[in-house]
Amino acid sequence: MASFASDNTAPVHPKVLAALATANNGAAPAYGNDRVTARLRETVAEVFHCPDVSVFPVFNGSACNGLALARMIRPYESILCHRQAHINNDECGLPEFFTGGKIVPIDGFGAKLTVAAIGDTIAHALEHAPHTSRPRAISLTQSTELGTVYSMDELATLTAFARTHGLYVHMDGARIANAVASLGCAPHEVVKGVDILSFGGTKNGAMLAEAAVIFNPVLAEDFAYIHKRAGQLPSKARFVSAQLQALLEDGLWLELGGHANAMARLLAEGLQTVAGVALLYPVEANELFVTLPRPVAQKLFAKGHQFYPWPAEGPEAYRLVTSFATTKAEVDGFLGEL
Amino acid sequence: MASFASDNTAPVHPKVLAALATANNGAAPAYGNDRVTARLRETVAEVFHCPDVSVFPVFNGSACNGLALARMIRPYESILCHRQAHINNDECGLPEFFTGGKIVPIDGFGAKLTVAAIGDTIAHALEHAPHTSRPRAISLTQSTELGTVYSMDELATLTAFARTHGLYVHMDGARIANAVASLGCAPHEVVKGVDILSFGGTKNGAMLAEAAVIFNPVLAEDFAYIHKRAGQLPSKARFVSAQLQALLEDGLWLELGGHANAMARLLAEGLQTVAGVALLYPVEANELFVTLPRPVAQKLFAKGHQFYPWPAEGPEAYRLVTSFATTKAEVDGFLGEL
Amino acid sequence: MASFASDNTAPVHPKVLAALATANNGAAPAYGNDRVTARLRETVAEVFHCPDVSVFPVFNGSACNGLALARMIRPYESILCHRQAHINNDECGLPEFFTGGKIVPIDGFGAKLTVAAIGDTIAHALEHAPHTSRPRAISLTQSTELGTVYSMDELATLTAFARTHGLYVHMDGARIANAVASLGCAPHEVVKGVDILSFGGTKNGAMLAEAAVIFNPVLAEDFAYIHKRAGQLPSKARFVSAQLQALLEDGLWLELGGHANAMARLLAEGLQTVAGVALLYPVEANELFVTLPRPVAQKLFAKGHQFYPWPAEGPEAYRLVTSFATTKAEVDGFLGEL
Amino acid sequence: MASFASDNTAPVHPKVLAALATANNGAAPAYGNDRVTARLRETVAEVFHCPDVSVFPVFNGSACNGLALARMIRPYESILCHRQAHINNDECGLPEFFTGGKIVPIDGFGAKLTVAAIGDTIAHALEHAPHTSRPRAISLTQSTELGTVYSMDELATLTAFARTHGLYVHMDGARIANAVASLGCAPHEVVKGVDILSFGGTKNGAMLAEAAVIFNPVLAEDFAYIHKRAGQLPSKARFVSAQLQALLEDGLWLELGGHANAMARLLAEGLQTVAGVALLYPVEANELFVTLPRPVAQKLFAKGHQFYPWPAEGPEAYRLVTSFATTKAEVDGFLGEL
User: Fold this and answer.
1) ipTM
2) Do D246 and D262 have their domain in common?
3) Which of C90, C93, C130 sits opposite A75 (nearest CB)?
4) Could you give the number of structural domains in chain A?
5) What 8-state DSSP symbol labels residue D307?
6) So what family is this one in (chains A, B, C, D) (predicted)?
7) Mind listing the pLDDT tens digit for each residue in D157-195?
């Protein structure tokens, strides 16, 4: 039986565990003033071709998003995101809490924002100032909550639009490794025009490690205060940094993300051959949204397979998520039950 | 050379690391619905003699305090604490952020609150309602920021007063193990009358693990929302819980706290024999506040020993902190330089 | 030329001004402990058949909504309202600011909420706890932002649903006088099942006066703190209360609201006879949403008439608002230009 | 019998009432885009010798302070004020609410800040960054909560210090008229080096009218959003502006403030002749803090005179406040009872 419930039910990659043991070497300065964290910054600078990057390791992805957005906006400003975005639906109001501002949800196919939809929202808000919160940032999820991936063209169009309109660009990269692996691009290409990336580790083999990766140096200023005040500055920061370092070294993150994507494609291919099964969105990363006839779903649940009904996409819709730890045997076993 | 800079420059105890490896065993439900977290709750219930206890593992001590206080007060209410409290001085406004309310700092020797000082503050605030935030909680730090420990009698007096006046009692237990070891009491005795304990692991051998331990069942209600909304709900919670479980099993936490205390006493005894050195407060846990003649301090720094000047306590005041990892050889070496 | 720009461009009714002069009679206790405010509470109790009502005079309608909602929810909870609601669009994030919570916008014809739409949102949110803010209040605008009025049946259905699901009911009554006059009901009938009413005065002849009218005594508790902390407790409260008292005495509020409604109907009747003009929504209160051929609109603007384009309702959509001060001559003059 | 309870128990000055009637002249643009508000800005510019001043009329003094401070700091920053300041004691946490930041109370005689005390606080906070909120603004109350007035020299020293240390200067001028009248200076002299003044009207003959007067043009940017989002933007703003205009025209504000001061001095002179009565602070504005033998106080209360015990200043301490409406007859009558 297989767990396709989420990529955060997966365990920790052995190299991450090993890195924690290696980091556990005597006393070290607290609060990120340690060598492991310094090395992480250098690695991120290399990977993303950004010598001046600032990197703030944090414990949690929702918090990482909240910190980034809190740095971008003032409380009377707003963040534009897709209605399906994690920051709109799955963080219990954390972004409003951390920013004081307003989340403005926008529609679009496949959980993707478009320039047209954003443009209307901005025009209306600015005409109505100061009665409507001023749009100040857009938040893109890459890969998206529906398992799609923004193409390089889509990103270029959105970031150019943002720059023109004085909007910061946040990228929620809880699954950035899956996106980069899917696009087959260099990591720095996917963050072109992005001001802050929430770099995700936990869903991709880390234990609990994310980082705010700040490409825009203006936004690095004062970030240390925001980091601390939200309870996201680890006192023993080396143990968060070490996890991310382990992922970034030798391209492990992309290997793991690519593997999860491959398992998702395998699953998608198998499912498509089954009568009554339909994919709701292109499978471009490690999440699948499918309609399954109810008896099929019930049989799978009865066998102990784990995945979630996804009623927001229809009465017979389900979500399946693969991870770095998903095996071909698990996928085959699952498909064999159909 | 020795690091007495802080107990969070220390490494992770080997048993904690081992527990992480053990917990890394295939897929497990996310968000605290795993077996390790369930077992942790049972262990805490046993240790603190509270069958109905609720336990919320979190990443960070400041955040743990903030969550507890956010559950206790409404934004128009206040929290009474000592002026030296971590929540007043060292969290960059996190408690105000998480609660929306007001921190009211109060004076008292050795960083301890007294009923007399609290009583005056409350009386004035209530007379002046609704122009002054209503006192609703007191926060006690055990052991305190000045290395002292509230006695059982002091705690009994304070918690009785709180109960009479409708105030919740929060205990900041970032160093609770040191306090319990110092008092030589049973763990449940030190939390009698406490509504929520911030149980500290990180300063006592964990990697990054604290827990909100809720003794008052009324306050457990809705805590899951507060936990999530603040970015403190670990998706792979088993790896936070496992750290705390490792500490609590077989009394490891008290053994480690007791060791740190013993090293502090050793240091104190040695320092007292040196001309011009004075202890500013009784050394009851693992922190020492001393005056050192400047040449002595400079010689120690020159040898590479690490500890902080503490100007708030005077121009020649310094703080030294021991930890579970401090060795007798380090203490002896340090004292040998004097 | 006529101003149909908004009901808050109107002046103050002479009886309101006279009441201010009357209230200006020597010293009086501050902060609402005066006789005028006490008398206002009694009047509201009579008008709404609620002997235990609590009344908190405030300066501003957005603030009144924010106070009411802040009393109803905790920061991890949400408020369900129509996407067109003032609290969602026109208050620059004040409700998020005052409550700390999340506004969840919902669709529905004529700016009205329906039980079906609310039900789906609640079900999804509760399934997803604690990752989604918990719905805790619904906010109904009466009359709505599109000039429609909830019928007694619609209100009964919504408030019954709310009661069943443990949701508080807030009514944004910035134009409550128009709604009551339109329905021809007794005032207490329109607030049946409502927990807090934002009673509007400013748009109906007051200078600057609204009141939080609390029917649910549970919500009156601690409201004084919320009132004060948000800067909405008038030190010389008698001068806010006197305005509302003047409106409520002898039914002046309903007379004025009814007059504004009548002027709106007159305008609607006249406009409907013009080729190319269409009403977008039923004209049930004092706001009209119409499509006007662009040349017609331009001619009217050129003559100095004031009203707003309303692009959210279409490229040729406009909003016209009447008030207590609108005269038949103004309406006739306006219609005469068409 | 006389009311010395507070200057906000006083009525409204007849010229203010008359100005409201004059402003009530047909339709006018809402939200401060009216002529009365434009004229007020010009008047303020003249009075304070600041052609580029921005003026935002608001309803309430606490809110005015909160808006000003919210513009000055980010949530991870702090405001330094005297422990006795209204923003620290009398606003139920409004400044923390509006700013998200921390209020740091500081001691000093006569409710006055000194450079020495501020300097220590700043040094400690900056050394401890980012664990302590960064000081970013000082708030001076002029006249102070204890009825004293900062001298021109004291102000020059404080504002120079602030400028050097990158701190904004807020002046809480709820009683600014009393201070200017007391100093006998030109109004622009008292605000030299001040970034935003909370200009008070309500305590000095207005009905409910204050204004954020912004001298530093950087801080005017985006203020409109803060103004709106806090529920302090009056829809019918002309009626707030008209009150302030009435006070500022022909120096009425200084005449009224000067009268209140004169009545306070008269009271002080009379009280000093009574055995057992002592003034606790110099009487420089319109507030007196005195010790009265309990039998004396009781006799006065029994006669119906109104004033408050002030236990924070001692068991026999009382506060008396005069206002524009206090008459010599009232003072003489009161003194005659002693």
Assistant:
1) 0.97
2) no
3) C93
4) 2
5) -
6) Belongs to the threonine aldolase family.
7) 999 999 999 999 999 999 999 999 999 999 999 999 999
